[in-house]
Specification:
Largest sheet: 5 strands, antiparallel
CATH architecture: 2-Layer Sandwich
Distance between the termini: 32 Å
Shape: globular
Helix content: 10-25%
Radius of gyration: 12 Å
Number of helices: 2
Strand order of the largest sheet: 1-5-2-3-4
CATH topology: Hypothetical Protein Yjia, Chain: A,domain 2
CATH class: Alpha Beta
CATH superfamily: CobW-like, C-terminal domain
Length: 87
């Protein structure tokens, strides 16, 4: 099963909070391109091993996809992601 979100290009996430969530998420795989308060990054998570690469894609929306064998609390994850939006 998988679930994904796309956020407007103007949406900026808090890097440290986002990294903490992705590193501790119990999912088989996470793929994300996220605009953060520290720049734009590609996140790749496989079995809780996180790879983060800076990228330069101005004007691109942030997106994240979470993949796992069983359903995760998608609504709760969305609420958490939205709580990491920089004010």
């Amino acid at each position: 099963m998988s679930c994904g979100w796309i956020f407007e290009p103007s949406t900026i996430f808090l890097f440290d909070a986002l990294y903490g969530l992705l590193a501790n998420l119990n999912a088989e795989r996470v793929k994300a391109v996220m605009k953060t308060d520290d720049g734009m990054y590609a996140f790749n998570v496989v079995n809780q091993m996180v790879t983060v690469s800076p990228i330069s894609l101005d004007g691109v929306e942030s997106k994240v996809e979470i993949i796992d064998k069983s359903p995760l609390p998608w609504d709760e994850l969305e609420t958490i992601l939205l709580s990491f939006v920089a004010q």
